Amino acid sequence: MQRLRAMGTTRELPPAALAFRALHAAITIGFLSAIAYVWWCALTGRRGPMLRLAVALLAGEGLLVAANGGDCPLGGLQEQLGDPVPLFELVLPPNAARRAVPVLGAVAAAGAGLLVRGGRAPSVSRFS
Q1: Which of 23, 43, 86, 96 would you call most buried, defined as having the most Cβ atoms within 10 angstroms of its Cβ?
Q2: Vertex 72: Cα angle to 89 and 118 (nearest 5)
Q3: pTM, whole model, 2 decimals?
Q4: 10 Å Cβ neighbour count for 126?
Q5: How crowded is residue 69: how many other Cβ atoms within 10 Å of its Cβ?
Q6: How does pLDDT run across 38-86, given as a tens digit for each residue?
Q7: How far is CA 125 from CA 40, 43, 44, 74, 121, in A?
């Protein structure tokens, strides 16, 4: 119910806050895509410039989140623009939303660790 209430406040947001919410959502989708791509490359053994870009962006985001005490660095700006509802609380319950950034950071780090380890999930031979 609280999530629906939070979503209902959209009409009351200033135009700058609405625009920033959309930008913040697009950035979030980009980072979620980068995490998925890192995992896909780690599991398939693929490499290339897009992987390097994804890892660099995730590492940069990780540094910004760490410098911000584990919170999304855009949250403060979002609040200053008049949007009091954290982005993940629009789609998750408050407790899960608070854990989203650290959990996604751990998932990204695990994918990067798998890349460093050599990627590729162990293959299963039909003759083993």
Answers
A1: 86
A2: 110
A3: 0.81
A4: 4
A5: 7
A6: 999 999 998 889 999 999 999 999 999 999 998 888 998 999 999 999 9
A7: 21, 17, 16, 47, 13
